[in-house]
Amino acid sequence: MFSYIVRRLLYTPLVVIGVLIVTFMLFRVVQGDVSAEYAGKNASAETIAEYRKELGFDKPLFINSEAASERGVLAVFDSQFFHHFKNAVTLDFGRARVSKQKVSSLLAEGAVPSLTLTVPMFLGTLITAVTISLFIALVRGSTLDTSVVVACVCGMSLPFLALIMFGQYFFAYKLEWFPVFGYEPGFAGAKYFVLPVLMGVFAGLGGDVRFYRTVMLDEINADYIRTAKAKGQNTPRILYRHLLKNAMIPIISKVVLAIPFLFLGSLLTERFFGIPGLGYLMVEAIGQRDFQIINAMTFVISVLFVLGNLATDVCYALVDPRVTLN
Amino acid sequence: MRSRLMFAWPIAVLMLVSGSMLGCSEESGGQNGSGGDATLTTRGALSSKVRGMDPMDIGDTTSSSVASNIFDCLYQYHYLKRPYELIPSVAESMPTVSEDGLTYTITLRDDVYFQDDECFTETEGKGRKVVANDFIYSWKRIANLKNVSKNWWIFDGRIKGFNEFRKYTEGVTDKKDVDYDRPVEGLVAVDDRTLQITLTKPWPQVVYMMSHLPTAVVPREAVEHYGDEFINHPVGTGPYMLTDWRRGSKIVFERNPNYREEFYPSEGSEGDKEAGRLDDAGKRLPLIDRVELLIIEEDQPRWLKFVQGDLDIGGIPKDNFDTAVTPSRGLTGDLREKGIVLEIYEDPATFWYGFNMEEPLLGNNLPLRQALNLAIDRDEYLKLFLNDRGMPARGVLPPMLAGYDPDVDSPFTVYDPELARKKVKEAEAIHGGPIPPIVLTMGSTDSVARQTGQWFTRAYQQVGITLEVDYMDWPSAQEKVKTKSAQMYAMGWVADIPDAENFMQLFYGPNASPGTNNMNYQNDEADALYEKLSVMEESPERVEVIRQMQKKVIDDLPCVFTLHRKAYLLRYDWLRNYKPHVFGYGLAKYRNIDAELRQQRVGR
Amino acid sequence: MTAISAEPVVSTASAGRSLWYDAWLRFRRKKLAMVMLVIVVLYVIVGIGVASGWLAADWQDSVGESYAPPSWDTPFGTDIFGQSVFRKMIYGTKISLSVAFFASLLSIGIGVPLGAIAGYFRGYIDEIIVWLYSTLSSIPGLLLILAFAYALKGATLFGYKLDGITAVYLALGLTSWVGLCRLIRGEVIKHKNRDYVTAANAYGASKARIIFRHVIPNVTHLILIDFSLRFVAFIHAEVILSFLGLGAKGEPSWGVMIDDARLELSRGYWWQMAAATLAIFGISLALNIVGDALRDALDPKIRE
Amino acid sequence: MSDTPIIEIEDLAVSFPVPDAAGRGRRFNAVQGVNLSVYPAQTLAVVGESGSGKSVSAMSVLQLIPTPPGKYESGKIVWRGGVPGHTQEGTGVDLLTFDDKRMRAVRGNQIAMIFQEPMTSLNPVYTIGDQITEAVLLHQQVTRAEANQIAIAALSDVGIAAPASRLKEYPHQLSGGMRQRVMIAMALACQPTLLLADEPTTALDVTIQAQILELLRKLQNEKQMAVLLITHDLGVVAENVDTVAVMYAGRVLEYASVFDVFQNPMHPYTRGLLKSMPVLGREVDRLPTVMDGATIPEDFPAGFTVHPHTVDRNPPGGYGGPNSHLYEVAPNHWVLCEPTAENKDAKPAHPRLAFRRDAVAAV
C-alpha cells in the first residue's frame, strides 16, 4: 500500500505539469499579450511596456537562448513558460488585473465563504440523497420508486438560475423566512446561508438521488444480499452492514472527486446571495477577463483534484479488500 | 483636462452609475445603532465591487466615492450651492493665481491631521499634520511610471518638469529605488503650509482637478509601511476611517475622531431651507457615526433589500422601474406609504455611438453618417432601455454645462426614416455602390447589450443599411477602439467637473486614439476653437466659442448622439440632508438620520 | 463423464433477432419512454424546421406591444420589442439542439477513437492518452470551457471565422470527450481479450479493422447512452454560458432568453423565463427518461 | 425415521410482472401449483432447465423472493421442523404466513440455503470469518470467540485445511471450490434441519463437484438433515438423491423415487430429457433433443392422459392444459396429467414419498 501511494504520488506531478502546460497554452499563448488591457484606457506606450515587463510578456515563450548567451546557461529558463511554472509552484500568482489585490490572498479570502456555502450544501445533498436512495432501493419497482425517479428528473431539468431567482423572491422576500442577501463570517452569518444551501441541496438532489439509486439497486440485487437475508439478518443491518459498505466504493469516488470543486464555490448562488466566495470571484474575473485570477483558480483546483484522485484510490483500498495496491 | 471615459456603452453606464456612484457616497440611510447607543448608522449598497482604495490607482466611480470617505483633496464642492461651486478642503482658501495664469499658490489649513495608524511609528500611531510636501509626494506617485497609475493623464504635459520626472522613473529598475525627493520645477513646497504649482501653459480647470480624488493626499509613511498592500490599508485625512472591508460583501466606515473642524453649510440654494436641508447648519461634520455599504451586484437582491428597508437609499434598477414609478413619473402608492422618496436629477452625461472617422466608408461619407443618425428613434430608445430616464441627445454637451443648448441647430439628429432613406441613396452614390454591412462593436455581452444591438440592427434595416453587431467584453472593445480597428462602437462620457472643455476635448484632433478622441475626429477649425477655449477663463465669450465648436462637430457628425441621462433614485424619508450631487464625492459626512422615524417605519 | 445436463438440447429454430432489434422491443414496452422519444423527435423536427427556415423565421417581427402578457394570440406574451416569445422559444430550439448535437458529435469523434486506441494498444500510447485525459479532467470543466471559448472566439478555422456560438460548440466538444474516452478505453480493454477479437486477429484482420469493425460496434450502445445523457448537460451548459456572456448573439436561444428574463422577472414579466424554462425542462425530461430507458434496454448488466 | 415430511410445499404459485408488447403490466406465474415434500434425512432433487421454477420454489421457502416485484399468489409451505420461540418440532406451520421477524428466526437457523454462485454470494468486503460468525451470532447465544470456534469447526467439516487462518481471508482470495465450501460451511454452521442447495456444484469442476456432493451426503447422514437439491445435472441426481421432482414451466411434471424416474419415466418431457442423455460407448450422429425423445409411453396408466411436451413455455391454459394436476398414476409415482372421462372420480394427489436409498437407510 505504501509503495502504491508513493507511485501515485510520483504520477501526480506529471498531471500537474500537464495542467500547467494547458493553462500556459490557454492563458499565455492563445490568449496572447494582455499588457495593453492591463494598462487601461488612457495608457501611454511606456505604461504598456511597463506592464509587459511586469507580466513577463517581453520574454520568449519557452527557451530564452538570448539570455543564456549573455547571462549563462541557467538564464535559458528565463522564459514565460518557466516563470509560469515557477509562479504556480510557489503559489505566487501576482496581482489581479482590476483590483490589484494579491491573487493568492483573494483565493484565501474567498475559500472560507465558499466552503461555508458548498460544504453544507454538499453534505446536505449527499446525506439526503443516500438516505432517499437507500429507502428507494427497498421499495424498488413500486409506484413510489417510479414517482421519485420522475421527481428527480424533473428537478434535474430545471435551470438553476431560474430556481435561484424564484427562491430568493418567494422565500426570502415574499414569505420573509430568510434574509434576502448578506454575509457574516462565523456563526453570526449562519442565517444567511440557510436559503442558498437549501436551494443548492434541492437543485443537486435530483441528479444525486438518481446516481445513488442506481448504485443501491446494483448492490441490493447482488447475491450476497440474498445470502445475508438467508442467514436471517434483519433489514436495517443488511442495509447498513452489507449494502452500504459495498456501495461506499462508488459513493467515495463521487464524494472525493467532488471535494476539490467545492473550492470553486457556486457561481450563481454566491452572486445572488452576496456570499463573497470564489464562485463570485470567478464570475467577476470572467467578466473582467482577469486572467491572473482565472489562471490561479484553474491551477489550484486542478491540483486539489489530482490530490483528490489520489485520496480516492487510497480510500478504495481502505474500503474494498479486493483492491490490491501494487 | 479629461474626465472619465465611461463604460462600454450607455445602458451599462446607467445601471452602474445609478447604483454605484449614487450607491456609495449617496446611498446612505439611517439606522439607529443597537439599544440606546447613540451610534448613527447609515446603510447603502454598491452595485459593483470596490477595486482598491489607493487614490493613485482609482479610476472608477465606485472606488472613488467609497475612498472619498477616507481621503481629502485640496478642494471640494459646496454641498448645497447650485451651480456647483468649489470651496477649500485641505486648502485654507482658493488659490492665488499669477498674472500669466501659470503659477498657483495654495495655502494649507493648519489643523489637518492624518488618521491614526500604526504606520506612524515615530508618533506611536498618532496621525501627523499634513504638510505641502505630502501633496507633492502623492502626485509624484502618480507620475512614477513604475506604479503604472491610470491617472497620469491628469498631469501629463501640464506641470513644469513633471514629465521629466516621469522620464527619470522609467530608467529606474525597481520602483522602490525611485527618489521621491528629486525636485520637480513646477511643484514646490515653499514652506509646510504653502504649495506652489507652476504650469506649462494656462489651464484654468486645474482647480477642478485638485478636487479630483486621485489627487488626494496620502501619507508617505503608510505607503512605505504597507507597500503594495496600501490599497487595503488606506490612511487619509477624511471624515471616516475604514474599519471593515470584506471584498465582495461589505465595507464599514466609522467616524474619524481627529477629523478637522468642519461644519455643515449654513447657506444653500433655493428650496434647501424648505426641504429641511439647512436644519443642521453649523453642526460639526460628520453627522453620522458609521457608514455601512453592502456590495450587491445583482439587481434583484439589491432591490429587494431596499424595499425591505434594509438600505436607506437605492437606485432603481431598470427593470423595477414599473414597480416603482408611475407613468407620470411619480412614485407608486405602496412605496410612498413606506416613506420612500423619489429623487430625479440631471446627470451631465452624453452617450453616443461613435464612428471611426479614419475608416473610409464612414469617414468619407457625410450623407451616410447623417442617415445613421436619422434612422434612430431616440425617444423609443429611451423608452425601451431607460424607461425614459433621460432626454434625446442632439449635440455634444449635456445639460448643466455652460454652452448646453436645448435648441441646438442639428437637423440630422432627429428621427426621420424618410430622409434617412434618401440620405442612404446619396451615400450609395458617393460610395459607388450599395453600402456594405457596418460592424458595430459592443463592449458587453449581457442581455441589455444584446437587446440594444438587436434594436440598432432593426432600426438600420428599415432604412436599408445592414448592421452587424460584434459583442465582446469591455477590455477587448476598448482595445479595438484604441487601435482604431472598430468601425462603429458604443461610448459615453460623464463630466466629473462642471466645465464644457471636458467634453470638447473629445473632439480635438491631437487627442485621437489612443487618446480620448476615439472617433479620431479631425477638423482644423474645431481644433483652433478648442485651443482657444481651453485657456480661456469662464466668460460669455468662452460659451460662444464652445458653441461654435459644437456646431462644427454636429455638422460633421462623427457619431450618433443618443441621449443625456437623468438619474432616478429612491431613498427613505428618514435619510436627512439628502441632495443629489453629480460631481462631488465624500458626501456621507453631510447626511443625517432620523432614527425615530426609521424605528417607526420599519421597526429597526 | 457423468455430468449430463438437464439443460435441454432444444432445437432453437427461432430466427436470431439482432441485439438492436431486441433492445428496441424492450424499449418499446416502456410507454413513458416511448412518449418521451416522440417528444425528443418533435424537438428535433422543430430544430430542423427552424434551421431550414420553415419555422419561426418571422421571430423578428413585432406582434404586439413591448412586454405584452400572454394571450390567445401570443401564447407566451411578447418581449421588449414586442416580438413573440413563443416564436423565440421555437427558434431557440435550433441553437440549443445544435450546440448539444455538434458538441456531442465532437466529443464522440475525439473520445471514442482515442479511448479505443488507448484500450487496444495499451503501452506508451495508452499512457499518453491517459495522461492527457487525467490532465484535462483535473481542470474544472467550466473554467476549461470558458478558456477555450475565449481562446477560440474570433479565431479562424478553415477560412471560417468562429463567432461566439461556434466557439461554444467547439469548447464544449473539446473539453467533454474525457468521460467518454475513459469509458470506451475500459470497455475496449475488456473486449480486447474476448474470443472474437482473437479470432479476428487469427484470420489476419488489420488492427484498425479490428478496432473499428469489431470492437467499436460492441460498445456502441454505451456511446448511445452516453450521448443521450450528455446532450442534456450541454443544453444546461448553454444557459450558464449565456449568463456569463458567451452564448448566442443576434438570435434567440433558451440560454439567452433566460439571461434576458433575469432582468425582467422582478418587474413581473415572467413569461420569457417561463417559456425558456419550459422548453429546457421538456427536452431534459424527455432525454433523461429516454436515456434511462435506453440504458435499461441496451445494457444487459443493469437489465433485471 | 419420521414418516411425516419435515416440509411440504402445497399448491404454491408465485407471480412476477411482465410488461407485454403493448407495454401494459401483466403478471406471469413463475411457478404454479407446485407440490413437493421432503422427509427428514432425505434428499429431494428438483431437476429441470433454467427458468423452470426450481429456484423460485426453493427461495419461496425462505421468503427470499423480492416482493415487489414478485408476489406469493397462493399455496402453503408447511414446516414441521419447529420455529424457535413459536412452535415445537412436529407442529406444522405455514411459512408463507410468517412476518419478516419470525421468518428471520427460521432463516439460516432451521433452514439454510446454499446459492448457485459462490463468486457473488459472498460479500466481497468482509472476511469469510465475519460472514460465518454473523450467521452463528444471529441464532445462537454464544460469544464471539465461541462463534469463531463454531466457524472453524464448520470450515473443517467442509474439508478446508487450516481453517483458523482461512477465517481472516476475503472471498476474492479463495478459489471457486473453496468459496462454495465456505458457503456450505456458513449454511451448516447453525446445523439446519433443512438445507436448500441451489445448484451447489454447477460452478465447480467435476472432481470438486464430487467432493462437495460426497461431503453433503456425509453431513446429511451425520446430522439427519433433509436436503432439497436443485440441479440440472442428471448424473448428480442418479448418484446422490432419494426422490426426484421434474419441473418445467413452473410446474412439477413428475415426482417419484430416483429409481422410478430413471427406469420408468412416464411424462413425455422426462422421457425426452433422459433420452437426450448421451450414453457412454454408444455412437450417435447427433444427440437426440428433448423433443426427439418426448414420447408418450404406450403403457401410460389407464384412466389418465398426458399431454405431449410443448416447447412453448407459456401455453394458453397453462402447461399440460388447465385441468392437469399431479395424480398418483402408479404407486409412489406422481405425474402431471388429466384423468380420462371414465376416471372422473380420481383426485389430484399431494406427492409424499418417504423413500431413501439403501446407503441412507443403513445409517
**Gyration radius over CA of chain B:** 25 Å
Query: How would you describe the shape of chain D?
Result: globular
Residue-averaged pLDDT of chain B: 84
CATH topology of the domain at 349-565 in chain B: Dipeptide-binding Protein, domain 3
The main sheet of chain D comes to: 9 strands, mixed
Shape of chain B: globular
The CATH architecture designation of the domain at 349-565 in chain B is Roll
- Put simply, the count of helices of chain B is 20
Question: N- to C-terminal separation of chain D?
Answer: 10 Å
Q: What is the terminal separation of chain B in angstroms?
A: 46 Å
**Count of separate DSSP helical elements of chain D:** 13
The SSE order of chain D reads EEEHEEHEHHHHHEHEHEEHHHEEEH
Mean pLDDT of chain D: 80
| CATH H-tier superfamily of the domain at 349-565 in chain B | Dipeptide-binding Protein, Domain 3
What's the helix and strand layout?
The complex is a heterotetramer of chains A (326), B (604), C (304) and D (363).
Chain B: E1 4-5, H1 10-19, H2 21-26, E2 31-32, E3 40-46, H3 61-67, E4 75-77, E5 86-88, E6 96-97, E7 103-107, H4 132-143, H5 162-171, E8 187-191, E9 194-198, H6 206-209, H7 220-226, E10 240-246, E11 250-255, E12 290-295, H8 299-307, E13 313-315, H9 321-324, H10 333-337, E14 340-355, H11 360-363, H12 366-374, H13 378-386, E15 390-392, H14 417-431, E16 438-442, H15 447-462, E17 467-471, H16 474-482, E18 488-494, H17 501-504, H18 524-534, H19 540-556, E19 559-572, E20 575-576, E21 592-593, H20 595-602
Parallel strand pairs in B: 3-12, 16-17, 16-18
Antiparallel strand pairs in B: 1-18, 2-3, 4-5, 6-7, 7-9, 8-9, 10-11, 11-12, 13-19, 14-18, 14-19, 15-19, 20-21
Helix pairs in contact in B: 12-14, 18-19
Chain C: H1 19-28, H2 31-51, H3 85-121, H4 123-138, H5 141-152, E1 156-157, E2 160-161, H6 164-175, H7 177-192, H8 195-202, H9 207-243, H10 254-264, H11 271-298
Antiparallel strand pairs in C: 1-2
Helix pairs in contact in C: 1-11, 2-3, 2-11, 3-4, 3-6, 3-7, 3-9, 3-11, 4-7, 5-6, 7-9, 8-9, 9-10, 9-11, 10-11
Chain D: E1 7-17, E2 27-38, E3 43-47, H1 54-61, E4 71-79, E5 93-94, H2 100-106, E6 111-114, H3 118-121, H4 128-139, H5 144-157, H6 163-166, H7 176-188, E7 194-198, H8 206-223, E8 226-231, H9 234-240, E9 243-248, E10 251-257, H10 258-263, H11 268-275, H12 290-293, E11 304-305, E12 325-330, E13 333-339, H13 358-361
Parallel strand pairs in D: 3-8, 3-9, 6-7, 7-8
Antiparallel strand pairs in D: 1-2, 1-4, 4-5, 9-10, 10-13, 11-13, 12-13
Helix pairs in contact in D: 4-5, 4-7, 5-7
